[in-house]
Amino acid sequence: MSWNCPNCGTKDNLPNVSVCHGMCGYTRYGRLVLVSTETNKEARFNIDASIGRGLLAKLVGDGGRFASEEQFLLRRCPDQSSWVIVPSAKAINDTQVNGVVIEASGTKLVDGSRVTIGSDTMPLVVRFEYD
Questions:
Q1: Strand partners, 31
Q2: Are 31 and 93 in contact (CB under 8 A)?
Q3: Contact 21, 34 (CB under 8 A)
Q4: What are 93-118's pLDDT values in tens digits?
Q5: Which of 44, 11, 37, 42 is CA-nearest to residue 26?
Q6: Which is it for strands 42-45 and 31-36: parallel, antiparallel or unpaired?
């Protein structure tokens, strides 16, 4: 479904595009949802957040024990007009997106991205919600 820009009023922006085509610079980030494929529990974020063992244990159960107190960061990135996942310097085990270790500068997240610790521990799927 298309969306209308709350900044400049441009109508009919394409649903899969996050930047207003009216060129006002507005970026529609939406709410990032992490869904555990093991428990079907969900966590929603509409602000930048540090994610660690406490939240992950509640979300994924036993697999959360492999997470560090601060495992990764979720940030809205104006340069990429999207949410990115950034590794924490405090993390012991690597965080991966779709089987690739996340970049120090941040890895862009899209609908359906698969986030894990290592190659397969604690699988989470990314989804976006828009009001």
A1: 129
A2: no
A3: no
A4: 999 999 999 999 999 999 999 999 98
A5: 11
A6: antiparallel
Rounded Cα–Cα distance for residues 69 and 52 (Å): 5
Does residue 48 surpass a pLDDT of 80? Answer: yes
Domain ranges across the chain? 31-129
d(CA 9, CA 12): 10
**Could you tell me whether strands 121-129 and 72-77 are parallel, antiparallel, or unpaired per DSSP bridges?**
unpaired
Dist. CA 19–CA 49, nearest whole Å: 22
> Terminal CA-to-CA distance of the chain, rounded, Å?
11
The H or E element spanning position 59 is helix 53-60
How do strand 114-117 and strand 100-101 relate by DSSP bridges? unpaired
Q: What is the number of other CB atoms lying within 10 angstroms of the CB of residue 61?
A: 14
What's the pTM?
A: 0.89
Band (pLDDT 50/70/90 cuts) for residue 131 is confident
Q: Two tokens at 116?
A: 């894990």
Is the CATH number of domain 31-129 3.40.190.10?
Answer: no
In whole angstroms, what separates CA 70 from the centre of its chain?
A: 15
